[in-house]
Amino acid sequence: MRFEYIAHRPCQVKSLLKEHDVSKALLAKIKFKGGNIWVNGKEENAIFVLNVGDVVTIEIPDEEDINGSLEPIYEPLEIVSEDDHFIILNKPHGIASIPSVLHSHTMANRVKGYYLSQNYPNKQVHIVTRLDKDTSGLMLFAKHGYAHARLDKQLQKKVIEKRYYALVAGEDDLPDEGEIIAPIARPEDSIITRCVHPSGKYAHTSYKVVARYGKVKLVDIQLHTGRTHQIRVHFSHIGQPLLGDDLYGGSMAYGIERQALHCHYLSFTDPFTRTQRIQTSSLTADMESVILKLQQKIKES
Length: 301
Known about the structure:
Layout: E1 2-6, E2 11-12, H1 13-19, H2 24-32, E3 36-39, E4 42-43, E5 49-50, E6 55-59, E7 79-82, E8 86-91, H3 107-118, E9 126-127, E10 136-142, H4 145-157, E11 161-169, E12 177-181, E13 184-185, E14 195-196, E15 204-213, E16 216-223, H5 230-237, E17 261-269, E18 276-280, H6 285-300
Parallel strand pairs: 10-17
Antiparallel strand pairs: 1-6, 2-5, 3-4, 3-6, 7-8, 8-10, 9-10, 11-16, 11-17, 12-15, 13-14, 15-16, 17-18
């Protein structure tokens, strides 16, 4: 895979490439594993001094299948967007993002199977954004390590935006919009659950109420930090747990058996085209079903 850059100031090749997120590790890969560097069509090395206007082309070698332990699974994927660098999927609930001791049939396994079935030159799976097993919605994958590294920069700067829809319910009213700022920690007696505690890490969640159905509200949520179970913990903390989320006190009486949480919006800057990429996803059938039943109940009352 080749990429081209133009020097806008006198500098070494490696300095120009660093401006475009080419790391020392990637330069080493280019040097030792079959890649190449050209300046104005002539092969050069990383310390060659550029003049203004010089054109630098790099060739990144294909990624070997080092994830041999990642078993490919040939199950259908709901692909909502794909190009040479990124793939955005709509993840169904009930499937984990990555393998673990508890989960082996994951989205990563499915993507591995898809890459192999398409005979893509790069077969490593690079997950940029993850979702909990029972959360549905948009997931972003990079199709090669360089693309992953460039989006990691955006993750570090917190400029990749994800928004979620959730169905929450509580006895008290919920303001039309608000900020939940409360530190999240792991209890000493559990490796799974999280809780709000002064000893925890800073966590910040914003929300807006989209619709109200009696005690149940549909909220649009934005995370400003990425703590484990952050949305679930924060809304439980303010007395508005997610429907179906029995781990954090959510009601199971509305016909949904998983946390009613769906990633419906994803936005990032494409580092290769410098354009804003925005993807949206409709609510899942189980969340829509809950809303329809609530609307019918209100209509009949």
